[in-house]
Amino acid sequence: MVALRRCDLLRQPNSRSCPWCPELASLDDRPVEASLVLQNLKGKDTEMQFMLQYFYDPSAEPPQDSPEAGCEVQEWMALAKAMAEAGVAVWGAPLLPPETATTLRKTQGSFATTDGPFAEAKEILGGFDVIEVADLDAALEWARRVPGETWTVEIRPVMNLDGVG
Length: 165
Known about the structure:
Layout: H1 7-10, H2 22-25, H3 34-42, E1 48-56, H4 67-86, E2 89-94, E3 102-107, E4 110-115, E5 124-133, H5 136-143, E6 151-157
Antiparallel strand pairs: 1-5, 1-6, 2-5, 3-4
């Protein structure tokens, strides 16, 4: 297993600065531009992978047994089909409710498990998709197609580790 530091991908070119590595932190404290991060993550590939994380407020959703909820499920299935047909789908899945989660915490080398989510939250993660598209703009276009009125989509580039190690 290769140990990587986040700085290896996020560091600005020609800079030895890294906010996450104390041995380098004093050398240079310039902020990292988001476009630079995407450029470094992209590397030589023409396509990038992005994770679309779907968050929702359960209090704003229709009851699960309502016709509205059934329609929304069909719309999600149609979106998954459209992603597959367009050749951008890598993988994805809906998630069971947070009550079904198990949380593992590591503190000073010891592990503790608890039933339930890590923290109470107004918005919860309902599912995700990993897509492969040309750039962030293309990922945003797919994210805008999310059904329903109350969803939040977090779009994050997937780190490319090809050639590392």
